[in-house]
Specification:
Blueprint: E1 3-6, H1 10-13, H2 22-30, H3 41-63, H4 72-102, E2 104-110, H5 117-120, E3 128-135, E4 138-145, H6 147-161
Helix pairs in contact: 3-4
Length: about 180
């Protein structure tokens, strides 16, 4: 009989609270955050797509202005104005389309089917029957795993960063 676990909350739930000291704390302040930790990452892709689409609109309308018997300067001014007015609605529309594909409920038989590095790094390799809810603020994963596989995964986590924990290893489980 397997047990059920939860995804990204494994580390904090285990009491692994990192307390940087001395040079480590100073190095952290100078290090930039990885791309997946940025606060606005859910809106970056829609913003980029919208900017490229509106830039393409301005360039094409300016280049093709003589076909509709407009001066290029006038067409450029009108297309830039339309781009500015339509930026927010366009960005929202693009975001709705993109988010419908990348966020929501997903089901996987094993961790190898999950194709998102933000999720993969928190799933035990032996996780099966994964129900994953992804949103802009993170994800929640429920999965089935045997007790032996979970304890093995837990031991690897503890070996990697257990020194940062609040409680001794012996109090966490009798394994």
């Amino acid at each position: 009989m397997g047990t059920t676990g939860s995804g990204p909350h494994t580390g904090p739930a285990l009491g692994l609270v990192e307390r940087p000291t001395g040079n480590e704390a100073q190095a952290r302040q100078t290090r930039s955050l990885p791309k997946d930790c940025r606060m606005f990452w859910p809106v970056i892709l829609p913003f980029q797509v919208t900017c490229w689409v509106l830039l393409l609109f301005v360039v094409l309308s300016t280049v093709l202005a003589p076909i509709v018997k407009w001066k290029r300067v006038s067409m450029f001014a009108v297309s830039v104005l339309l781009g500015c007015v339509g930026f927010i609605p366009s960005c929202v529309a693009v975001e709705v389309v993109i988010d419908s594909q990348r966020f929501g409920d997903f089901y996987y038989k094993s961790g190898s089917e999950v194709n998102d590095f933000r999720v993969e790094r928190y799933l035990p390799p032996a996780a099966r029957n994964i129900h994953l809810y992804q949103g802009g603020g993170g994800f929640c994963a429920k999965y089935t795993i045997s007790k032996a596989d979970f304890l093995s995964y837990f031991d690897r986590l503890w070996d990697a960063s257990g020194r940062l924990g609040d409680m001794p290893r012996e109090r966490l489980h009798a394994g």
